[in-house]
Please model this.
Amino acid sequence: EVQLVESGGGLVQPGRSLRLSCAASGFTFDDYVMHWVRRAPGKGLEWVSGISWNSGSIGYADSVKGRFTISRDNAKNSLYLQMNSLRAEDTALYYCAKDTRPNTFDFFDIWGPGTMVTVSS
Amino acid sequence: EIVLTQSPATLSLSPGERATLSCRASQSVSSYLAWYQEKPGQAPRLLIYDASNRATGIPARFSGSGSGTDFTLTISSLEPEDFAVYYCQQGNNWPLTFGGGTKVEIK
Model:
């Protein structure tokens, strides 16, 4: 079964850091681009970041550029999101998501259940 | 950044009726458009990709059309489980962007 499971969320103070992880199983992880997508309370979906199979292509939303860093470890079938200088507006449910086709950077066909990040003093 | 505008914001319909949802892009995305369904407490589910291709396991009552800047998701006959929020998303340009969503509610 294809599965993604996020971890690492929690309550953090503004300005602090948090690292999210996503464990993948049931597919050839290093064939696919992987993404982070978030949904703030009461708001819509927002793509946060994506990373190609070999980490050669990386993209970020403008709202997180310079503060968040995406990475992956293909040997561990894992995806990460290092979040620094967190702000209240980063409060959201963070989803790990798999791209639809090998080596494409477009849509998300498998999603994890999400991990909640709350930024508050 | 490509802005996606969905309309209407809310669609009130009865089971068995046809639902037509619209998504307009601020510039051409070719056919790189997807539709997702989201229900409370669940992760989004991919319904349609490349504007008109149904994802694995998606019933035939869901169909997508359009290209360039104007796209439509049609649910031919609403089932009780179809009442949810629907998002479009473009995959043509970075940053990838979503529309604001259309809520399909029971009339």
